[in-house]
Amino acid sequence: MSKPDKPKSVVSKTVDIAKKAATVAATRAAAQSITPDKVVIFDTTLRDGEQCPGATMTFEEKLEVADFLEEMGVDIIEAGFPIASDGDFEAVSAIAKRLKKSVVCGLSRAGMKDIDRAGEAVKHAARPRIHTFISTSSIHIKHKLMKTEEEVLGMIADQVARARNWCDDVEWSAEDATRTDIEYLIRCVDTAIKAGATTINLPDTVGYTTPDEYYEMFRAVRERVANSDKAIFSVHCHNDLGMAVANSLAGLRGGARQIECTINGIGERAGNAALEEVVVAIKTRGDVLPYTTGIRHEMLNRASKLVSAATSFPVQYNKAIVGRNAFAHESGIHQDGMIKNATTYEIMTPESVGVSKTSLVMGKHSGRAAFKQKIREMGYELGENALEDAFNRFKTLCDRKKHVYDEDIEALVDENIAVEHDHTKVVALIVIAGTMGPQSATLTLDVEGLHHTTQSTGNGPVDAIFNAIKKLVPHEAKLELYQVHAVTEGTDAQAEVSVRLADVVEGKSVTAKAADPDTLVASAKAYIMALNKLTAKRGRLHAQAAG
Hints:
By secondary structure, the chain is an alpha/beta fold. It has 17 helices and 14 strands. Strand 2 (76-80), helix 3 (86-98) and strand 3 (103-108) form a beta-alpha-beta unit.
């Protein structure tokens, strides 16, 4: 695609552009079946969510998340910030080529190079969108942009026009809208719509506003901008004061019909409005929130687990909708009420968000039939050989743990799936640790069917284990992440270990997770699983190159 022509200045905008914008907005609304009660879900997990410190995802993980979001019914997927890095550009471009139903969106600042980079990234999408933004609050204009208000108005017109040269679907955002003078905000929105913006986003960038204020801002802007009916209005709320979801829903009352959100509420600082909370609130409280979304609610729990695994960000136990305790009842009073009628303490069914209703207690006396039924209820389908292996490992776990929980079984099955095709496995591990003497590890690995044993020391037991692995399986991979957390409570809880290894030659990273009641065994397993994945990935890359 050739580079777009230089955009027109603000004084040269014509009525024809405004008419064209109205036509495009009407066409897009029809395509998305936007009715007065339809709320468009704009997911920015792959962009704003990934900006959360430490939440970076690999290329493959981004593709997996994007595929799942589309299957779940997300209307618009903001795939990244193309000019931020070559990796971001490649991910946005790949997702744009891959998805068929969801709108694929790339973010850009007001600069022309930013917009062109975003345009290049999404140009192959079945339904492309450019999302471009500029600050409008006086504090940002003065201290960040160092411009005048009139200069910013000109930049708004230019950036929207530039984006429209790439695609018809253009979203414009007023960064820090909730701290912008309302009179000036109205001028900015009017300028953006006249220049061709089909979606107007008024974000609470720093999580500053309250529901009443946010509602009033949308009401005022939509009433006082003459051509506000030519665009869809959007909310984008951060959770600095814990009101992101409440503010987002207040924006709907003010006339917004697009909500920008993330899975598990991840994002900058305290995060964004959580997608699962927004859509389930709309579904559950239709009496006061008379709206609909196209989200498949039964997939929300799996979406949460997928993003948590990809980002290595655990979901807090008491997180609404998808937290481990969201449908758990320990109080005797609550249990009594649940036994008599579940609606006494549950305002939605666990099945409605993809959580198994049955709390089946599994133990060493459970048979294969019960185990098979249990993992099927948890969403897994295993072949006979894989099932037999998982069952045997489950029985071994039962002999080592007093209580076996659903999370234990889930971790076990996930690990079983991951190691099914691995060529290197942990056979035996002996670790000497403590305050006396150097920590050491004696490790036996099964490498392609042959057992190899070595002993190594290190700065701590985990370091000793990893040094032993490196002696048996020489490699140059760099350890980027080592993280441990308990799968369940208690001193006999399984430890779940996450390991991320980077291939310094190929420039790729992989993450693996393993669980075991022994933290050191879990550490060895996770490292080996990551090494297997890295080796397999390198082999595929070399095979592709040779082909």
